[in-house]
Amino acid sequence: MRRSSLLLTAALLASPMAAVSAHAATCPTALASAYVGLTCTVGQLEFSNIVIAPNPQGSGFISPITVSPFLGGVENGLTLSFNANTGILGGSTDIAWTYNVRTLDGPIIDAFLAMTGDAILPPSSISVSEVLSNGVTLALHAAGTTTAFFDPILGLSVFKDQFNFAGVGGLATTSTLTNGFSVVPIPGAALLMGSALGFAGFGAWRRRRREASPALA
C-alpha cells in the first residue's frame, strides 16, 4: 500500500498538470505603493489586501520598497527588495507585511520564507517572523530560508515582521524578503487527499528536493 501511494504521488508530480511554473504572473514589479488595493496572481496563487509598512527608528533607514513576483517552480509568491540599514548610531528598522493569499487550483500545502542580509557589526541582529492564520509560524534569525508544511488549505491570512536592531557602533542590513507557497493542482489534489500515505510521500519528496536545491543568494 505504501509503495503504491508513493508511486501515485511521483506520477502526479511528473505530470504536466503539476507544473506550477507554467502559470504566468499578473503581479507587477513595482513600488509597494502600487500594491495598495491591488489583487493579482503569481502562478496558481492570488494575493490581495497587501499592506507593507516600513518603520525606521533612530539612525535606521529604509529605502523605497519594490515588490516583484517570485516564480520558484516549487514555491511561488512575492519578493520585497529594499535597503534596510540600522546605521551605526543606534537604530532599528521594521517592515510589517500583511496580505491574504488563496489558491486558484488545488490546496496550499506549505509556506516558504527567505531573507538576505547580515548583522555586520555587534551589537546587532536581523530577524523575520511570520504567522499564518492556520496557526503555523516561521522564523529566521539570520540570512537563509525555511519551509513549514501543513494540512492542505485553500486560503490564508499572512502577517510578517522583519526587524533589524543595532546598538551604538553596531550595524545590521537586510535587502530582500521572499514568501512563497506550494499548491497541489487538481486533479492531483483530490487523489492525494484521498490517501494519507500519498501526502506523506509527497512531503518526503519535497523535503529531499528542498535539501538538494541551492539556497537563495
What do these coordinates show?
The protein has 217 residues and is α+β, with helices and mostly antiparallel strands. It has one domain (21-181): Jelly Rolls (Sandwich), CATH 2.60.120. It is built from 3 helices and 13 strands. A hairpin with a 2-residue loop joins strand 2 (40-42) and strand 3 (45-58). The chain is globular.
What layout of secondary structure does this protein have?
Blueprint: H1 2-14, E1 30-31, E2 40-42, E3 45-58, E4 61-62, E5 66-71, E6 76-85, E7 89-103, E8 108-121, E9 124-132, E10 137-140, E11 144-153, E12 155-168, E13 171-183, H2 188-193, H3 196-212
Antiparallel strand pairs: 1-5, 2-3, 3-7, 4-6, 5-6, 6-13, 7-12, 8-11, 8-13, 9-10, 9-12
Helix pairs in contact: 1-3
